[in-house]
Amino acid sequence: MREILEKLNQGIKEIRDLENLKRIKAEYLGKRGYITKLLKNISTLPAEEKKNYGEMINSLKKEAEKIFSQKNEGIRKEIENLSLEREKLDISLPGRRYAKGSLHPLNIVLREIEGIFEGLNFSIEEGPEIEYELYNFDMLNMPKEHPARDMHDTFYIDEDILLRTHTSPVQIRVLREKVPPLMFISPGKVYRRDADVSHSPMFHQVEGMIVDRKVSFSHLKGIMTVFLREFFGEETRLRFRPSYFPFTEPSAEVDIQCIICRGDGCRLCSYTGFLEILGCGVVHPNVFKAAGYDPKIWKGLAFGMGVERMAMLKYGINDIRLLFENDYRFLKIFA
Amino acid sequence: MIISLNWLNEFVEIPCNAREFAYKLTMGGLEAESIVCLNEMLGSARAGEIKDIKKGNINWITVNIKERDIEIATRLSLQIGDKIAVVEAGGEVGKKKVQKMTFGSRTSYGVICSTQDLGMENEELIKLEKEVENGTYLKDIKEFNDCLITFDITPNRGDCFSMLGIARDASAIFNKPLKKLEYNLEEEEIEQKIKVTLKNTKDCPRYSARLLKNVNIKESPFLIRFRLLKCGIRPVNNIVDITNYVMLALGQPLHAFDVEKLEGNEIIVRDAKNGENIITLDEKERTLSENMLVIADKIKPIAIAGIMGEKETGVTEKTRNVLIESAHFDPVSVRMTARKLSMHTDASHRFERGVDPKNTMEAANYAAHLIQKYTQGHIIQELVDVKTTSFPEKEIICSYNDIREIIGYDIKDEKIRNIIKNLHMGLEDKIEEFLVHIPTFRFDLFQCEDIAEEVARIYGYNNIPSILPSTPLIPQKKDKLATISEKIKDTFLNNGLSEVINYSFVNIEELEKYNLIENEIVKINNPLSLEQNVMRFTLLLGLLNNVILNVSRSVLRVPLFEIGKIFIEGEKGKLPYEPLTLGIALFGRRYEPCWHEKEANFDFYDIKGFFEDVFYLIGADVEYRQTQNPFFHPQKATDVLFKGKTIGHFGEIHPEILYKTRLKTKNAVILGEINLAKIVEKSKKLIFFRHLPKYPLVIRDISLFMDKDILVGEILKTIEDTDKHIDKIYIFDLFTKGKEKSVGFRIILRNDEKTFTDDEVQYIINKVVQKIEEKFAARLRR
Predict the structure, then answer these.
(1) Residues A52 and A144 occupy one common structural domain
(2) pLDDT above 90 (res B16)
């Protein structure tokens, strides 16, 4: 028995691959293998020897199987190690990234603004970009002869149809179609006849409105403060100063502390230390009357801001025209 | 509106420095845009007297600055004896150093200061009074120790376009009384009268005037000239300057007529006749119409009321007798006329926003006083003042509680009362309410809300607390189209498309050039430029121009999309149709340069894939049909049909269009757009759960040869319809050989009842092959 195992060990000593090992294993343990044959010989033995012989061959078989499985494991590991050596990757090569596009910076900012207001339970309302003069001006307390119309240099399509100069007409539409209390913002494109480094004939606005029985100017300050701190950072200093919009009374302009000089005065803020960021106010009773609401019962707050200005401040873009030129290299910056 | 603090100081005491003053007024509602303090700009500027002038290409002047004469080169034409402001070389003005300059062989040892050097808007020579001693530093002259503040006055505050107006607000903000202008009028009794007739008392309810004789027309004194310059108005002559000076001081626009040029001693304020002509002071001929108000003499209009006077009757060097008009015109009337005539003057700006009708006499008198003082004119005793009303004050009823409710803060009665009184309004306390008498100079106060703003702004917005409202929670529904377009954007971003935003207006000629005219176009009546004269009804032009711009800047890869509205003309008088539209542009390399993909260019199937993603996302069933659209390549583009109607198209642009772009490229430009609003409206994405296959799926590949023009899409449909067990079909192989192509289909079979037997599978596959062979004359590739 020992001899047999010795011979076996000898026979596989030089084997380096699994195929040859398998072949040798068959020579011993296969159907016609040497050990198998030995086991078959048991039938020729006398009955009293059969038990001993059987036990002996079986343990020989087990021993052989063990040797083969050890050898097998040894060779497999050896091969694995070899291939680990060979299969080297350049892990410094860039990975396979699927191309990513970029959202337009104005829409990045718009999504952020919308997100903040949605978090405050505002809904989003939209309206047509080409509007009736009635909705854009008259019903917003800006009759034809009103000098405030000078602030809105208007594109006309027809005598009484125009490109909306603000998204406020959406407010009129919502007031007429929905039931208060209301809390909504109206984002969208607006148009004014003006073009230079900081004015574009088409630009984007987000306006908002709250209509309820008891809201006041101090609430407006509250909402604007929460929004602006969320957008520009918790530490942002704000200032509210009186201004004029025909559709609100009282009206306010909100300035944030200059994001460049932090209030010391620089070119961006024309040395005032502050940047004008949005307009707001308590809804004018005439607007409520025009929309069929009793201004004695319903109070409203309204606000509006330019998305271009917010985006330009956020990213430090100094020429508004870049936003509408659509140079791919410019757009990719925002990916 | 630019104010001079020195001048303002004549109306109210200013208790702080310029910067603080500007800040306080800004916080009170008068926004200070900029501040220029002259004393910071003066540097070493001094008074100098011109002793000698040598004219030439460059004029050489000799200026005496007391201790010596200096030579200065200038292009200005000056006169000997003029007293001007100069800076010697080595000194400084306008925060800039002044250096010696050599012209040929001569050296200029200084410069002449202009108003612009001191930070003012207009460039004008600073001519000093003759009495100023040579060499005096400007910083020692009072009018140069001044700060100018530019206020951006909102259109509701017409009352603030003067020193007096700003002073009134300042007096409320700083709680200081207004000072009264002190002057005397020495009137003479002369028998000459001017008759004034008001024919339209609605648009001109009051006309005051002063007649002055024997005026001496010349240059205004330094004080008047320099104050006008500070406020951005160019001096003309003493009479014109004084009318402007009074306007800046009191807010009342004045006009001076040359009395000898008037026909008859009569002023008639009337509506213009249709087609009546007038040559205005700016030497332009203007044609009037009947709803415009004019000032006329017996035969002709001599001024467009509240806007501009006529040239002929204006003041000239030869004028001896003048009539100073100080009238009140209706804001709407002036605004409408100015708009129709496209005119905008300092006078019309004020009248449009409202001028105090009770101040006409004061302004006429002040002007008369100044004319008398500076031109030695004689004031005729009788003041003309025709009016049809006494301009009663408006009254507003309000309550302290109303004001507190609007502001949302507990401001005490006493405080509210004081603020209103400090704003020069009368206040009468009633039982629960109070009555506010609105002064005639305020045109912006109508109701209690307006009074609340007045209180809030003087109280200080920043002293009012910030509180969050407790409005009820209302479930907010999101718009389906908006939600889907955001999802589409996200899909595209993750697949490498970048978003663009193009202008909504386009050039109609460009639309024509590229064969893009299809719908009724919405035209803009008053476009900013011809490049933007119509509203877009396709996104394709914008996207094409984006490709052109990027290619011209050598960008090799341009994958873009846009989601925006297009505009289609509707019924007359109705708003146009504005469907939200989705557009895509692809050009150049499919991949960013990389080591793992072969270089390839975008083609038709890229754009189709992007659109298929969209249709899948929306749950829309669409069909494709070869396009007839002349913008697109007839073979490499398709129309998209939804419920039988064309809702878009995409593909390569027509080679002819590509040629017209003048792009020097052999690469295809791939564009497309679909009407997103229409398909989203009528589609619904449904997701049904189906359990995972219980029995093994069977996969079979078949390859067929067929004529190369056969549409694979048709075969796919045929295969799908062959057997209900066909779960999915992929096309795994495609190539052309001569007139034939080979298409490899991978068919996935699924059976939810049992495991397929070989025979069953073979039966289905045979059926498929047989059907394709019959229908498309195809043959199985062995």
Answers:
(1) no
(2) yes
**Contact at 8 Å (CB) between A152 and A190?**
no
CA distances from residue B647 to A42, B509, B567, B581, B672 in whole angstroms, order as listed? 88, 24, 15, 10, 11
* Joined tokens for residue A327: 């140079």
Which residues share a beta bridge with A274?
Answer: A257
Same domain, yes or no, for A71 and A28? yes
- Mutate which of A141, A218, A220, A323 to test chain B, going by most B C-beta atoms within 10 A? A218
Q: CATH no. for residue A299?
A: 3.30.930.10
On whether both A12 and A119 belong to a single domain, the answer is: no
Helix, strand and coil percent figures for chain B, each rounded to 5: 30, 30, 40
- The letter for the amino acid at A183 is M
Q: Please measure the distance between the N-terminal and C-terminal CA atoms of chain A and give it in whole angstroms.
A: 75
Task: Say if the Cβ atoms of B407 and A284 lie within 8 Å.
Answer: no
- Residue A74 sits in the same domain as residue A109: no
User: Which residues of chain B from 403 to 462 reach within 8 Å of chain A, CB to CB?
Assistant: 405-409, 444, 447, 449-450, 452-453, 456-457, 461-462
Q: What is the mean pLDDT of residues B149-172?
A: 95
Q: What are the pLDDT digits (tens) for B474-520?
A: 787 888 999 999 999 999 999 999 999 999 999 999 999 998 887 78
Structural domain that includes position A221: 105-334
Q: Strand B534-535 relative to strand B622-626: parallel, antiparallel, unpaired?
A: unpaired
Q: Quick one: A274 and A139 in the same domain? A: yes
Q: Are B293 and B269 in contact (CB under 8 A)?
A: yes
The number of domains in chain A is: 2
Chain A nearest CA to B341, separation (Å): 15
- Residue A97, domain member (yes or no): no
Measured CA distances, A177 to A171, A214, B480, B681 (Å): 10, 21, 18, 20
Shared domain for A133 and A70, answered yes or no, is no
The verdict on residue A93 lying in a domain is no
Three-state SS for B4? strand
Residue A39 to residue A246: CA distance in whole angstroms: 110
Q: Is B474 on the interface with A (CB under 8 A)?
A: yes
Give the C-alpha separation, B39 to B139, whole Å. Answer: 6
Q: What digits encode the pLDDT tens for the residues B395-454?
A: 999 999 999 999 999 999 999 999 999 999 999 998 889 999 999 999 999 999 999 999
User: Do the Cβ atoms of B462 and A240 come closer than 8 Å?
Assistant: yes
Q: Which of B501, B502, B580, B613 to mutate to test the interface with A (most CBs of A within 10 A)?
A: B501
Mean pLDDT of A283-296: 95
- A149 with A14, same domain: the answer is no
Q: Which residues make beta-bridge pairs with B52?
A: B62
- Contact criterion met (CB < 8 Å) for A101 and B557: no
Chain A interface test: which of B575, B578, B580, B598 (most A C-beta within 10 Å): B575
CB under 8 A, 24+ apart: contacts of A24-30: A25/A68, A28/A64, A28/A68, A29/A61, A29/A64, A29/A65, A29/A68
**Pair (A120, A39) in one structural domain:** no
What order do you get walking across the sheet with B83-88 strand by strand?
B69-74, B59-64, B46-54, B83-88, B110-112
Query: What is the number of other CB atoms lying within 10 angstroms of the CB of residue B599?
Result: 9
Mean pLDDT of chain B: 92
Q: What is the pTM of this model?
A: 0.86
Average pLDDT over residues B537-560: 95
For residue B192, the number of C-alpha atoms closer than 13 Å in the C-beta half-sphere is: 17
Subunit contact B26:A241, Cβ cutoff 8 A: yes
Distance CA B623, CA B639 (A): 8
Of B156, B447, B522, the CB nearest to A244: B156
State which of A52, A86, A120 marks the end of a domain. Answer: A86
- Quote the DSSP letter at residue B725: T
